[in-house]
Amino acid sequence: MQPETLNAAIIIIGNEILSGKTQDLNVQFLALQLADLGIRLNEVRIIPDISEDIINTVNKLRKKYTYVFTTGGIGPTHDDITAKAIADAFNEELLLNEDAKSIIEKHVRECDKVIREDHIRMAYMPKSANLLLNLETGAPGFRIENVFVMAGVPYIMQSIFMEAKKLLKQGKPILSEAIEINLSEGLIAKPFADLQNKYPTIEMGSYPFKQQDKKWKTNLVLRGDDQELIRQVKIELLEIIGKIKD
Amino acid sequence: MQPETLNAAIIIIGNEILSGKTQDLNVQFLALQLADLGIRLNEVRIIPDISEDIINTVNKLRKKYTYVFTTGGIGPTHDDITAKAIADAFNEELLLNEDAKSIIEKHVRECDKVIREDHIRMAYMPKSANLLLNLETGAPGFRIENVFVMAGVPYIMQSIFMEAKKLLKQGKPILSEAIEINLSEGLIAKPFADLQNKYPTIEMGSYPFKQQDKKWKTNLVLRGDDQELIRQVKIELLEIIGKIKD
After folding, report:
1. What beta strand segments (E) does chain B contain?
2. Are residues A93 and A211 in the same domain?
3. Is A170 inside a domain boundary?
4. Contacts with A28 from chain B: Cβ below 8 Å
5. Which of B21, B49, B75 has the CB atom closest to A185's CB atom?
6. Do A113 and A182 have their domain in common?
7. Which domain holds residue B226?
8. Do the Cβ atoms of A17 and B35 come within 8 Å?
9. pTM (two decimals)
10. pLDDT tens digit string along B220-246?
11. Into how many domains does chain B fold?
12. Listed residue (B70, B60, B66) closest to B27, CA to CA
């Protein structure tokens, strides 16, 4: 039996990213985690805090991919509209989740704060949502079908993702090997293309970068799920590089 | 006459971002530049180096927004497929652009390198493309209608964007004011929501973060294009904050 192909999309819900106020750090964290789980990240969308945009994007992507991960918009303020939008996307009611309420109340008490209506607002979720615990700040994320709804603040998102992770199927980890060469891309382009044609199941990428001393280097990356094949192609690539004269 | 609303989308073409290998730095740079030009960034998509995905995404977004900016995939290696995909999206031929060829040849000569076929590969562009000069490494980006095609390496992208910028219409700059408060979000949520309802044309966001000393702070952000109104709302918000007891 062919193993199932697992893939995913991330939806970053965040005016703060689109305005340039905040540098996104969640995509790279999730991308590395998913690669490790053998889940291919096929797409990321960064969208504004607009209900209709969230509903449309979630409904499009949840049908297309094994998993969808959203970050942002589940806090206590008026601009946090993700939970309601997700409920709408699934045609479900937004209800007070009693477990979430207890967790939030406990956390607020432990911080010696007074519980307010706005804290409890974070306990409203789509009817069939399952909680994803947040060990950092209490207020949980949730899963509904194949959609995982997480906070936007990176360390809280990461805590919620560790819970989400337990519920994910795993594929063969996507392995990657990088070779850094002291050559510009132009010199390796032709033989590297030939190598890609010879081994189509290995994804080969070339990423130039400039060093502090202004010299160009290039990272050649081999990606795939067949460790032995990657090893073999790497040896071949090293031989090719050895023959190139700058 | 109502001033025209200018908006934009960014398409990041990059397996290296989706694999987690590279941290994207282009979104924030472009987001800040566009806000400054009064162009609203409505959406970002990060997609793989797959021709069909590039074609579909470009064709969807160029009809929806005033401007589309792509980054990535215009180098000399086999995984650089953006120029061809853009030509396909516009049903145009991919042709050797003689101006681009001269620029690339000049740059390669200046670096005392031998010109190769793969260098010249970067001079192939859709027939009606206009060059966007790249003062850093020679190989230019290009514009076709409302789509601006740029490199993925941040400092090269920035150089090309400075050329693109000259061709953009400008709206009223989108201004933002941030107030940092020593309160968690829960305490400000209710009055901040009331303020948002009172001033619907100002976009108000609340962004919590944790300090090194583990105390919560919150950034309250006001955004809009009416400087006087933002000033007035900021004063009102400061009064509200002054009355809150932790």
Report:
1. 7-13, 40-47, 67-71, 94-96, 124-126, 130-134, 138-144, 147-150, 175-181, 203-210, 216-224
2. no
3. no
4. 17, 20, 22-24
5. B75
6. no
7. 175-243
8. no
9. 0.93
10. 999 999 999 999 999 999 999 988 865
11. 2
12. B70
